[in-house]
Amino acid sequence: MTRTGKFRKSASILMTMALLFTMTTGVFGFGTPKASAASVEETRFLQLYSQIKDPSNGYFSAEGIPYHSIETLMSEAPDYGHMTTSEAYSYWMWLEVLYGHYTGDWNKLEDAWDNMEKYMIPINEGDGKEEQPTMSNYNPNSPATYAAEYGQPDKYPSSLTGQYSAGKDPLDAELKATYGNNQTYLMHWLLDVDNWYGFGNLLNPSHTATYVNTFQRGEQESVWEAITHPSQDNKTFGKTGEGFMSLFTKENNAPAAQWRYTNATDADARAVQAMYWAKELGYNNEVYLKKAEKMGDYLRYGMYDKYFQQIGSAADGSPAAGNGKDASHFLMSWYTAWGGGLGQGGNWAWRIGASHVHQGYQNVVASYALSDPDGGLIPDSATAGQDWNTTLKRQLEFYTWLQSAEGAIAGGATNSWDGAYKAYPAGTSTFYGLAYDDAPVYHDPPSNNWFGMQAWPVERIAEYYYILASNGDTSSENFQMAKQVISKWIDWSMDYVFVNSRPSSDSEGYYLDAQGNRVLGGTNPQIATVAAPGEFWIPSNLEWQGKPDSWNGYSSHTGNSGLHVVTKNPGQDVGVLGSYIKALTFFAAGTKAENGSYTTIGGQAGQLAKSLLDTAWSYNDGIGIAKAEPRDDYYRYFTKEIYFPSGWSGTYGQGNTLPGSNTVPSDPSKGGNGVYASYSDVRPKIKNDPSWQALVDKYNTSWNPQTKKWDNGAPQFTYHRFWSQVDMATAYAEYDRLINGGGGGPVDPVAPKAPANLKATPGDAKVQLSWSKSTGAESYTVKRSITSGGPYANIATVTEPAYTDLNVVNDTTYYYVVSASNAVGTSPDSAEVSAKPTATPTPVHGNLKLQYRSTDSNETDNQVRANLKIVNTGTEPVSLSNVKVRYYYTVDGDKAQEFYCDYAAIGSGNVTGSFVKMPNAKPGADYYLEISFGSGAGTLAPGADTGDIQIRFNKTDWSNYNEAGDFSHDATKTSYTEWDKVPLYVKGTLAWGLEP
What we know:
Layout: H1 13-25, H2 40-53, E1 83-85, H3 86-103, H4 107-119, E2 158-159, H5 172-179, E3 190-192, E4 210-213, E5 229-230, E6 232-233, E7 249-250, E8 258-263, H6 265-280, H7 286-298, E9 336-341, E10 349-352, E11 356-358, H8 364-369, H9 384-402, E12 412-414, E13 430-431, E14 434-437, H10 452-470, H11 477-493, E15 498-503, E16 529-546, E17 563-571, H12 574-595, H13 600-616, E18 629-630, E19 640-645, E20 650-651, E21 657-658, E22 664-665, E23 674-678, H14 679-682, H15 692-702, E24 703-704, E25 709-710, E26 716-717, H16 722-740, E27 759-762, E28 767-770, E29 779-785, E30 793-798, E31 802-805, E32 814-821, E33 833-835, E34 844-845, E35 848-853, E36 863-872, E37 878-879, E38 883-889, E39 897-904, E40 911-922, E41 925-933, E42 939-940, E43 949-955, E44 977-978, E45 984-986, E46 989-993
Parallel strand pairs: 2-7
Antiparallel strand pairs: 1-3, 3-4, 4-5, 6-8, 8-9, 9-10, 11-12, 12-14, 13-14, 15-16, 16-17, 18-26, 19-23, 20-21, 22-23, 24-25, 27-28, 28-31, 29-30, 29-32, 32-33, 34-46, 35-36, 35-44, 36-43, 37-42, 38-41, 38-45, 39-43, 40-41, 45-46
């Protein structure tokens, strides 16, 4: 057997000649020529994009939600193909980013984000439906009640013992101050898109899509052992009076009705990563970029131990409650979760992080975007940027710590050994107090044996390496760590990837050399192959041996000579292939950005990426790129292994009783006392699936229960997973963009588009103008007229998207437009705006003062929020029943409105609000909210203040306001400040401030 088709690090003479050919001809792109026509890769990206978005192909539901897969009979992370995940949404963002890059059409990216916000982020997105209805009751000093994790599902429910008091949540107050509330702006990870389970969307019944959850019972609970249940559980389903909660946790009393959501941190980080690239590729709508920043702000909960215990404090089995950032491991853990009560008595909420950290969930690009000014997405909260900056370096150290001697990345770490804060075993390797775990989070199958868990995160390291090299940062420690990790990983992985040849392996999946010996690691393995034109092969699984050295900093790290990987199971997973190609592509482009030309290994990585892309296209079946795959695990559809404790019986959304009568006793050695049911016992609707009978027939004729093998071959399925198709589509696009210079690369320049979002804010003898940047603009011309529609006179040429016009006369209305220019030409004019400067009136300053604090940084959402405080600086008491406050604003669509006082130190029941439409609109105001105080508010003594008065209001149809420029609104005042533009009245007379 020979090694044909293998791309080696030490290139042969033939390979060298091939590379020289591509360098001179531009086939690979070393010369970066730009053809007049679209490249093969660009064409294939757009074709795959069309296949994914074609309604007849079935990737999206009637509500526009991407399914996990076109096919329905499937059990992997989602246990039904027409569910979806937050992962799918994050990939959708990436797809639309690159579509926007090629077409200039960014509307589809915004549509995708809107759909995500509507169906996957459980917030009130403007339809009046509160999907986190009691989060305001959350107590950050007591985030959650402790319950231990166990090794087997049979040991559940776990008692809510509170054995270890939770630490304090240090983020909640900061997030409230920034956004006006603490409703978590993150995706729940799992959605029953077509309500297949039948639970229904309790808190938003107009949506077919329903929030559900699965894994709740420890590291051994696989998808085959999980019980899919509603995330909004009012006990309609499940056990009478208990719902599904009593399967997972045990309380002294019957569990209360509740809502609860779980976030997969890697998905939200990928969405932020996509928005970073959108910004880099010319997207400039601040509304959606701010949403990505907000998501990143809340994503910091993924940096915290599950119960906010101090990191490393449980090494001896005695955890200590955290009191701030000492409970943060500054890595992306497996999840964060939050929830609260439903119905009467439901005035409570909780929040947890996660103690287990997997290498596959880290995202250095998102961390860079959220921390570095050049990343451009630093969130608004006071400590968010610093947190993400710490996290960025910590993740790079984490990968360096976990990199095996060969180059693959080992599993991860935990702050809670066995999920119960047990003492670390003697000799455990540690990282900033965390204990090494080769398979963190789950063990069936081991969480770090899938090659996809290598390609996903390391591709992000390749991106970061490319970003820093492109920015000229080639000396920082962050760059050195990124370069070391990605270079060594690429070096290792290419030894096990084949194009147009098939590697030899044995019945247990081990690669073989030419003598038929198993290849059990080491560098430069000699894998035997046979010719196989048109095929690609990449690894599927890994085995781990040894452990990393305990971490003492990058300068002390010596390379983990005691940590090794055995690479196994050559396979043809097209989704993983897409991620792998992107890792190769970004690495290749990074070597050129760093060195001015491709290095030897960089050139080989780029050539391998090109060959894999060309080969993969032959697997396009008109719907997408897919390959039939054997499913050895599908015998588990029929085995009975879903545990129900003794005495637990309830109703399921599909109309059946759980666990049903067709059960077997549980295994006492697993620690439980109950019964096991099968997948089809729990989910009887699966028997109606069009592929079910074929699977039954295959099971009956091929599965051998004695040998536990498929005698006549395992069942095969061809799946069109949404994320896999996007991974392949974006692989073509990224190769074209980075290697061919496609799309946004060295193409013929064009004149910029007209500036968008022009705003004019009048002042005293001045008008302040601002607008969004226009892609490709080198300068902007500001034009003015005193007549609407012009003619306009040029008054300034500037290079930044802002200008202050000081040559104006008060009480005169001015009309403005702006155009953008570059060397090619000038854009059309922007939309016209007007402003009327006026002399600044003198505010009234009496013995009462109004202090104001903005809690609403999102100026375009569906609520207006503010915190107010009245201070008596005089010598006489003032009855608050004689005082009124006016908050001036624009209604932005005249609708009925509702007022709420969420909290007042003087009693929220003593605070009322009424809405007054102004007979003549003024700049920044066509309405005002008048706040009054009842007799119960009492008297304000000299030198005293009212304390916090937290108010908000909304339109009854929950349509959005636009607070930008509102008279009484100032988003910059995030701490209490005297504010003239919220006037006070005593007995009807202006006593403080000014009116518009």
